[in-house]
């Protein structure tokens, strides 16, 4: 079995540089803000895994049910030819596995490429999948899906780019539109895009998913301060910040924030920065947009895709959308 090809578009010092820039820019802005991607160090990823097991957090279970139950339909909707699959934000590549299994069972899985920011995770998942899919060409891309789509593998068969888990909703509108245009530009006519998106529903259900009774989301949200303490030698006291989550109905968006419960001065030694907080002052720590199928399909058309199929779970919590380039 040949060694999987690894395309490194992001080095560790790139990640450090963007962390420093995000932190400096966000902590010196009014209002203060930090991007959700900063939450996912080892501890944050572990907390997110625990969060997916909370009864209120429906997303992962709902999307897993769709992909498990509809994998053969999705594979059939890709035609009858071999397919090369690239999963953006692959993590452990757990979400896409039912589709990979359906294609492999039909002898149609030509290649699989996990695409993620963490080189170690990409290497680990390639080692794991070499056993599961011995006949498939495996490769990996270590990169940022908002910057490195030009590095997709140039397999001549149908390419399926999958972007699951609802992460698309963490991008603000202009960045979502940019991402869709960049992806369309990176694909050829006939290639496909499989997108997992959280759907608009009862706001009480949505808010509960971001403020679970066990407090795991609150701890996940405060983890961004632990990341700054460890990576930038800051002295945040996460316990002095309250997890706040609100639903912006017109924008169909969940806003997450951390609210200072007392006046504070925080030293961010790694940036040479003193950051003051008035009592009640907030750091905006990310958004999660919820979608209406017709509007999302219109956004796909605007970017040059032709929506061809979609599936939801029994409660229509999550949607999985297939579109053709
Ligand atoms: C994994 C990014 C989709 O936005 O719902 C969960 C992350 N943040 N609870 C989401 C998250 C707070 C999650 N995504």
Automatic annotation (TrEMBL):
Question: Molecular function terms in GO for this entry?
Answer: L-histidine N(alpha)-methyltransferase activity
Matches recorded under InterPro entries: EgtD (IPR035094), EgtD_Methyltrsf_superfamily (IPR051128), MeTrfase_dom (IPR019257), MeTrfase_EgtD-like (IPR017804), SAM-dependent_MTases_sf (IPR029063)
NCBIfam families attached here? egtD_ergothio
Q: Which controlled-vocabulary keywords does the entry list? A: Methyltransferase, Transferase
Protein name, as recorded: L-histidine N(Alpha)-methyltransferase
Q: Which Enzyme Commission numbers does its entry carry? A: 2.1.1.44
| GO annotation, biological process | methylation
Instruction: Identify the residues that the record assigns to the Histidine-specific methyltransferase SAM-dependent domain, covering every copy.
Output: 21-324
- Which Pfam families would you find in this protein's record? Methyltransf_33
The keyword Transferase is assigned to this record? yes
Q: What EC class does the entry list?
A: transferase
Under the heading PANTHER family, the entry gives: ERGOTHIONEINE BIOSYNTHESIS PROTEIN 1
Which organism does this record belong to? Glycomyces terrestris
